[in-house]
Amino acid sequence: MDMLQGVFSLFADPRFILYVLIGSVAGLFVGAIPGLSVSMATALLVSITYTWQTSDALATVMGVYVVGVFSGALSAILINIPGAPSSVVTTLDGYPMAKRGEAWKALKYATIYSFVGSVFGLVVMALLARPITDIALQFQPMDYFLLAFFGLATVGGLTTKSFTKGLFSALIGIVLSLVGMDSVMGTPRLTLGLQNLKAGIPTVPALVGLFGFAEVLSVVYDGIRDGKVSSLGQQNVPTRTILRELPRSLYYSVIGTLVGALPGAGGPVASFLAYGQAKKLVRKPSRPFGEGAYEGLVASESANNACIGGALIPMLTLAIPGDAVTAIILSVFTIHGLKPGPTFLRTGAAHFYEILAGGLIGCVFLLLLGLLVAPRISRIINVPKRILMPIVAVLCVIGAYACNKRMFDVGLMIFFGVLGFVLRRRGFSSAPVTLGLVLGGMMDSNFRRAMSLASTSANPLATAFWRPITMVLLVLTILTLVTNTPAWKKWRARRRAKAAS
């Protein structure tokens, strides 16, 4: 009852709704333009909102998050260039529909089922956040270490084609998170003698560099890639016809929510899994999958938007980001003095209601903007990158400098931009670096605390690991590491080959 009252009170707050609208409009335009991802938009937003009231910042961020994830489908459908990684699967059927003159129909399907997926994920978050919190309250320091380790091990296998490259990226983030004053000894660590690094690496310049400036460098290196916008036209697409896919959409939303709750997985994984399920479920699609089947569009958009609520669950209850965007949102919490984790729903219930209400109001704006505004902004998608990228570069510099008003932070932003660019060129992902930066400090402090407590007992190994939660997390982590090794994959491939023959 308290949750319903808290959420609905914000639905009647014009100021809160206005900030969600501002974020939603920003998410629509930024997410629709190839090269401007929702991760980069959220990272830039951190530097703008750090002086705002906490409720205003959370409202704006949730608007950007919810609508930004959806708006990547616009360029995916119209010009076959996904506006976000989670929209890659949307291109498979969305763009063929557009080429057949059904762009309006494709956008309507994408809008309605993005709305369905987003609402489903947020409702699940509201229902499961408290039970998960009750379990999390039983966690000990070793459990937090293993949970973070499990999240990084998982992201290593899901964000890049090479599991080794994913773990290496996460290791870079962990090492960088250790820069600063040692939390136990109180001495400088990995600062290279620089006074400005004694407080650690600031989150905002690092995120802006990895997601913003790295994209600018990549575009400059690769050159301009132009796309031709498909003609929208006007088609009569009855909503009743579109809603026939609702039962299957709920199944895809379950997949998206579960995948979103898995630290590091996110929309791309969810949309691929849902698309694979759609191929098995839909025996007679409107067209062959990959040639303009709206059933594939429904699967992709339902799953990747349901990831929003799923990804917020571990971030709020365990302080473990579910994806790169929630890792950035976690930095918003840190800047505003909030501490997500097992006690968050008790000590910060009002802020939980703000996140939930902001997401649900964002869903309403997603539906309105998607149906009324999105079809009319196709020309903006083709803004020449020679104009767009200099603007992004200036915003990156301003965002990095504005946080602490130090040119040193601008230098850090450029360093992380170059780092992100080099990692991309070599096939590494920036997402594990981000998660390593966010989780590294927690892993360090909790592991050392656990070892300190265990060292005073007669059997340190049993004290550290012999608890049900600890053993489950340890087994899951080991299984994740083993099943992603090249040797295991070769063995599985041989087994499948023998079974097939």
Describe the structure.
The structure is a single chain. This protein has 23 helices and 2 strands. It is an all-alpha fold. It has a two-stranded antiparallel sheet. The longest helix is centred in the N-terminal third of the chain and has 34 residues. The radius of gyration is 22 Å and the shape is globular.
What is the compact description of this entry?
This protein has 501 residues and is an all-alpha fold. The chain has one domain (2-223, 242-500).
List the helices and strands and how they pair.
Elements: H1 2-11, H2 14-32, H3 38-49, H4 54-79, H5 88-99, H6 103-136, H7 141-158, H8 163-177, E1 180-181, E2 188-189, H9 203-222, H10 239-242, H11 246-261, H12 267-281, H13 294-318, H14 324-335, H15 344-347, H16 349-373, H17 378-381, H18 385-404, H19 407-425, H20 431-454, H21 460-465, H22 468-483, H23 486-500
Antiparallel strand pairs: 1-2
Helix pairs in contact: 1-16, 2-4, 2-16, 3-4, 3-9, 3-14, 3-18, 4-5, 4-6, 4-13, 4-14, 4-16, 5-6, 5-13, 6-11, 6-13, 6-16, 7-8, 7-20, 7-22, 8-20, 9-18, 9-19, 11-12, 11-13, 12-13, 14-20, 18-19
